[in-house]
Amino acid sequence: MLYFIPTPIGNLEDISLRSLNILAKSSLVFCEDTRVAKKLINLLQKNSNLDFIEKNFISMHSHNEERVIKELNKETFDQTVVYLSDAGMPCVSDPGCKLVEYAQKNSIEYEVLPGANAALLAYAASGFCQKEFLFFGFLSHKTKSRNEELQKLINSSYTTILYESPHRIKKLIDELSSLIPNHQIFLAKELTKMYELKLKGTAKEIKENFKDINTKGEWVVVVSGTYESTKGEAITIEDILSLDIPKKAASKLIAKLTGENPKECYKQLLHSSNPKG
Question: Which residue ranges make up each domain of the chain?
Answer without folding.
Answer: 2-112, 119-233
